[in-house]
Amino acid sequence: MERKLLIAGNWKLNKTIREALELVTLLKRSIRETQTVEVVVCPPFTALSETAETLLESGIQVGAQDIFWEEKGAFTGEVSATLIKEAGAAFVIIGHSERRQYFHETDETVNKKTKAALKNCLTPIVCVGETLAEREADKTFLVITAQLKGGFANFSADEMKKVVVAYEPVWAIGTGKVATPAQAEEAHAFIRKELSKAFGSDVAGTLRILYGGSVKPENTSELMSQPDIDGALVGGASLEAPGFTEIVRNAALGRRPIEEL
């Protein structure tokens, strides 16, 4: 089965409601529904509902940047899967390196959040990846293996079919550095191999693995030409309509036959 490319824009802590609506209004005009690329934007919680409403019937979907694993209760400041789904989210990013670095996200909490997302019929984009120190110490594959095992402990094959994985080398996020296509493909192929061992080749063969780490229009096509890279988790370059639109177009050109977007 051919894996449909997925381009997800992670806006992080950017965009007021007004700014978010301005951006998605432009994206609606420049990105038409396409058969080869699935497009998702992930605004801050405050702009989720308005963004989703504006994008109705546009072909562009909406995701959240995080969730809590409990449905409700005395958890001040947290947002549940139920709440983001009601606000219009279909996807949710889980375990982003910035969550791990600044907010003490662990493989255990990633596991709980991913379970909560699936329970509420949300598609989780689960992030894994190594720091620069870990890569330089030749621990890249050890780190990824531990994150996969912890993040997906006690998952069934059927559950894994509904998951998206994002490989994001921490040293390439927001730094302007980017893994070479060969480096990215090596990591993606390793992830697919490990998932195949754990959940079977059928699951691993259809599961999408995204690349995240200073993705730009200039490097998108070459990255997407790699056989195990199924899309991108885009940070800063998703904050402006022209650049994000070009990334979507270049993704299609890099992996699929040319089509008008």
Summarize, please.
The chain is an alpha/beta fold and 261 residues long. It is built from twelve helices and eight strands. The protein has a single domain, classed as Aldolase class I (TIM Barrel).
Poorly predicted residue ranges? 256-261
Integer count of domains: 1
Using the coordinates above, name the CATH class. Answer: Alpha Beta
Q: How many H/I helical runs?
A: 12
What is the end-to-end distance?
Answer: 23 Å
Query: Whole-number radius of gyration?
Result: 17 Å
Rough shape?
globular
The CATH superfamily appears as Aldolase class I
The CATH architecture would be: Alpha-Beta Barrel
Average of pLDDT: 93
* Backbone structural class: alpha/beta
Q: Report strand %.
A: 5-15%
Query: How are the strands of the largest sheet arranged?
Result: 7-6-5-4-3-2-1-8
What is the H-and-E element order? EHEHEHEHHEHHHEHHEHEH
Tell me the major beta sheet. Answer: 8 strands, parallel
Tally of strands = 8
Multimerization state: single chain
What is the element layout, followed by pairings?
Blueprint lengths: L4 E6 L6 H14 L6 E6 L5 H7 L5 E5 L16 H6 L4 E4 L2 H7 L3 H13 L3 E6 L3 H5 L3 H12 L5 H4 L3 E4 L13 H19 L1 H6 L2 E3 L5 H8 L6 E4 L6 H15 L6
Parallel strand pairs: 1-2, 1-8, 2-3, 3-4, 4-5, 5-6, 6-7
